[in-house]
Structures are given as structure tokens and as C-alpha cells.
């Protein structure tokens, strides 16, 4: 079965085509990063206009690369939530057009779940339940993924998302937007002494022991204070410290989520998983704690892309989900697809 996925929720316009939810036939992505860079963050109006300008070209290229006709598509899946409303509407409208011309069934899908579904393109088998760890520019959360189409929130962020914290700290350090890759590169340049203690305070000391909860705004403020008070610290040292503290919190929350739910299988996804230090830390944590943890091996699958949407669409389509042409898009999370 061949299906298409359309992704326009934020700053990537992307079309992916997959066979049987596991074989990638084509993937086209246009990243708007350079357009948003001068503003240090995503400008929604620029994002939706850029999606509109690019989506037709990407669709044509993806169809050519996959060497399929529209008549061969069994479904068209499209990200319908969460995301920027104007941007989501561009993808939704494209799916509606395909439906109107070719009668292709439409599947509006949850962006967050598609970050977990993408692992099937790298051969990870479907076995539920699974804990879904999502770390991106807009979300830091852990879910209990009962099956595709059904997941429950286990823990969320109280303020910033982890990717957002990377971007803000990069701003404080005069590093370009988006900050994640630049902070990672600087942190890797720092060679700490074997017994070096972190200079940032431990996070969320006062939270109840069983609470799964992220908070990164305090860490950002701590970096700001550090910059003012300890001018002798290098950017590399600050980046190393910031990453360490942030990843400590991720690890601690994952540990709590595992003991709270009893689930020992984790799917990790989202843009921050492109960070190789994080991937290594999570893997070694999982091995030590007898947890099976899967995260995308290819960086292109960490970032937003149409292939993950097509993959999630495959599983939902098989279960009989589909929507009428008047489906809506939503900026907020809709964990339950029903
Ligand atoms: O999932 P994603 O592509 O889209 C949004 O949620 O918008 O995530 C983008 C986020 C940005 O905040 C970016 O700084 C972060 O992922 N990111 C990274 C790395 N690469 C991208 N964070 C840490 N280390 C990286 N190597």
C-alpha cells in the first residue's frame, strides 16, 4: 500500500511517500530556517507564506522521485495538529485538493505521534505500549503510547520546551538560530577535567519524587546569571554545563516515567534528538536500566518531515480511520485521534 504524508506544521514544508508504512519511496523537505534566522525565531506569517510558495514544487518532486501516480495512492495523511494554524491550513488544503481530484481518502494526523511512527522507517517493530519521549522546539513531554491513535500524557513541560531553551541560550551566547546544533558543537569542544563539577544548579530540586515534569526556563536564567557573574567561563564550558543539566533532567524524567508506568520500551523523537551527546546518554542510560530505547538514526527523521506523517497514516488507515473533507486543523495538542 502506498501513501503520502504532508507536513507543514511549523517551519519545514515536506512531502513523503512510503510503501506499507516502512519503505521510503521519496522525501522532499524545504527548511525555512534561513528565512526566520534574522528574527531569532519562527515568524508565523512568514512560515505560512513560504509553505504556500513551496508545497506544489515539493509535491511534484516527491511524486517524480517515488515514480508513482496519484491513482496509486491509497491515502493522503496530513499533519492537522498541533502547529501554527496558518501553516497547518496550507497542508490541509493540499490534502483536500488531492482528495477532490482523485478521491484519495484523507487522514488528518497528530504531529507528535508521527515523531514516534517514523522509527518504523528504520525497522523498529510495532509493539505497544511504549513510552514516547518527545523533545523538540515546541514540546518536551513523555507519553504513554497505547497504540497509534491513542496516547496519554505522562509528563509535560511547565514552561519552555528543550529545543526552545537551546535556542534561547544560544541567543544569550550570540550563537546563531536555531541554537541546538551550535550549542552541541561548542559543548563537544570543551574537555572537562575528570572530576569537574557542574557550575549550574541542580534542576527542580523541590518537585515531588514521583512527578514527571520538565522545566527549562530556570536553567536559561541560570546561564544568564553565570554570564554576568563568571566572565572567565568560556562559551564552550557554558554550553557543556547547559547540556549536562538539561540532559540530567531528561534522564531523571524518563526514569520516573518508567517506574510510574512499568513500561520499559521507549520511542524518542523530535528535533533535539539530532544531538549526538543526548542520543549516547539515553542509550547508555537505557542499557544500564534494562530499558529498550529507540531514537532515529538519521538526523532527517528527527526533524519534521512528510515521511513520518505517511508512516503514521499507514497504521491509522489500516485501522479504518479517515476523515471527511471538512476536517479542522488545531494549534493545540489533540492526543486522542478519534
Ligand atoms: O522537531 P523540530 O525540528 O521542530 C520544531 O519543534 O520546531 O525541532 C527543532 C528544535 C530547535 O529548537 C533546534 O534548536 C533543536 O530542535 N535542535 C537541536 C539540535 N538540532 C536541532 N537541539 C540540540 N542539539 C541539536 N543538535
TrEMBL record:
Its EC number is 2.3.1.234. It is found in: Cytoplasm. Its cofactor is Fe(2+). GO terms for biological process: tRNA threonylcarbamoyladenosine modification. Coiled coil: none annotated. Fe cation binds at residues 111, 115, 304. InterPro entries: ATPase_NBD (IPR043129), Gcp-like_dom (IPR000905), KAE1/TsaD (IPR017861), TsaD (IPR022450). Pfam families: TsaD. PANTHER family: TRNA N6-ADENOSINE THREONYLCARBAMOYLTRANSFERASE, TRNA N6-ADENOSINE THREONYLCARBAMOYLTRANSFERASE, MITOCHONDRIAL. Belongs to the KAE1 / TsaD family. This is tRNA N6-adenosine threonylcarbamoyltransferase. It comes from Leptospira tipperaryensis. The gene is tsaD.
Amino acid at each position: 500500500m502506498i501513501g503520502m504524508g504532508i507536513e507543514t506544521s511549523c517551519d519545514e514544508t515536506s512531502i513523503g511517500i512510503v510503501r506499507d508504512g516502512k519503505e521510503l519511496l521519496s522525501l522532499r523537505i524545504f527548511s525555512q530556517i534561513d528565512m526566520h534566522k534574522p528574527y531569532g525565531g519562527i515568524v508565523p506569517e512568514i512560515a505560512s507564506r513560504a509553505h504556500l510558495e513551496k508545497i506544489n514544487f515539493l509535491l511534484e518532486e516527491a511524486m517524480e522521485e517515488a515514480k508513482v501516480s496519484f491513482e496509486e495512492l491509497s491515502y493522503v495523511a496530513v499533519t492537522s495538529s498541533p502547529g501554527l494554524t496558518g501553516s497547518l491550513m496550507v497542508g490541509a488544503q493540499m490534502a483536500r485538493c488531492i482528495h477532490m481530484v482523485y478521491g484519495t481518502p484523507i487522514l488528518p494526523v497528530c504531529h507528535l505521534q508521527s515523531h514516534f511512527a517514523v522509527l518504523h522507517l528504520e525497522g523498529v517493530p510495532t509493539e505497544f505500549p511504549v513510552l514516547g519521549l518527545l523533545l523538540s522546539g515546541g514540546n518536551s513531554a513523555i507519553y504513554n503510547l497505547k497504540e497509534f491513535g491513542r496516547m496519554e500524557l505522562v509528563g509535560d513541560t511547565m514552561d519552555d520546551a528543550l529545543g526552545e531553551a537551546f535556542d534561547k541560550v544560544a541567543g544569550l551566547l550570540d550563537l546563531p538560530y536555531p541554537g541546538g546544533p551550535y550549542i552541541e558543537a561548542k559543548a563537544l569542544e570543551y574537555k572537562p577535567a575528570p572530576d569537574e563539577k557542574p557550575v549550574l544548579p541542580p534542576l527542580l530540586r523541590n518537585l515531588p519524587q514521583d512527578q514527571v515534569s520538565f522545566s527549562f526556563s530556570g536553567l536559561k536564567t541560570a546561564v544568564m546569571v553565570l554570564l554576568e557573574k563568571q566572565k572567565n567561563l568560556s562559551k564552550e564550558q557554558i554550553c557543556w554545563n547547559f547540556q549536562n543539566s538539561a540532559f540530567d533532567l531528561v534522564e531523571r524524567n524518563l526514569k520516573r516515567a518508567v517506574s510510574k508506568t512499568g513500561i520499559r520500551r521507549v520511542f524518542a523523537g523530535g528535533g533535539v534528538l539530532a544531538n549526538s551527546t543526548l542520543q549516547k546518554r539515553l542509550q547508555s542510560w537505557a542499557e544500564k536500566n534494562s530499558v529498550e530505547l529507540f531514537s532515529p538514526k538519521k538526523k532527517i527523521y528527527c526533524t519534521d518531515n512528510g515521511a513520518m506523517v505517511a508512516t503514521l497514516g499507514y497504521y491509522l488507515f489500516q485501522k479504518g480511520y479517515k476523515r471527511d473533507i471538512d476536517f479542522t486543523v488545531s494549534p493545540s495538542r489533540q492526543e486522542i485521534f478519534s
